[in-house]
């Protein structure tokens, strides 16, 4: 009888406590409940186990963020502020604590990936992280979950060459900030072209700086791009990674490029998300001895987010 792989979902009820002010804000707590509901109802239900995250330690946050930002974020929520810097970045009293737990989900994911080689790990978390800069929030993001997980993988397990592959509809400006001057880290991003999309970064010409020259691969897509255009990029991504030779792979798994998600003009489908799952699993098997962790980024249409995540996880298990 065929052995079905176990999928480790790192998540916690506490993520629902991050209150973004009601139904008008796209980064709502219901994002996680629709994923959970779909996975419970779908074909993967008997393969899933849930693991709780741990709060990230301050020293781990400081591997990317500044002390000034930590103090400013904590002070803002304790003083009753409802947003920080921009109304996109809605917060409540619990948001700092929840954000430390969100950043910690990737660390637990890394532990699982190291202790159980070849495991399928998905961090079902919020708030997301890839826009967060060292000293300020951007685009619903407060702590850069993917970068903090990468630093942890480097420091705790000495996996020095870490790559983040991000297929969220928007460019991860914060990840690029972290990695663009380093030779031992790499960042690949498929996103809607910055001429049309937030945050306006991620031009193909941005390839890294100094020692990091050549370690950034931005692959911007025109509005309307979907499966055909993405599939054409996959050999380029594989060649980039074969040249880089990563020790570990982190996926910024955003689902707002879906054709029904109005947060972008891209036209991804669930079939494409399954293909992306196939692709990254093959990369991990071939290049990192299976060391792979996926961390939820965007995805805001509640009618398709659950099935998009399910399709990606099915791709990882194929």
TrEMBL record:
Belongs to the histone deacetylase family. InterPro entries: HDACs, His_deacetylse_dom, His_deacetylse_dom_sf, Ureohydrolase_dom_sf. Residues 25-313 form the Histone deacetylase domain. PANTHER family: HISTONE DEACETYLASE HDAC1, HISTONE DEACETYLASE HDAC1-RELATED. GO terms for biological process: epigenetic regulation of gene expression. GO terms for molecular function: histone deacetylase activity. The lineage of its organism: Bacteria, Pseudomonadati, Thermodesulfobacteriota, Desulfobulbia, Desulfobulbales. This is Histone deacetylase. Transmembrane segments: none annotated. Signal peptide: none annotated. Pfam families: Hist_deacetyl.
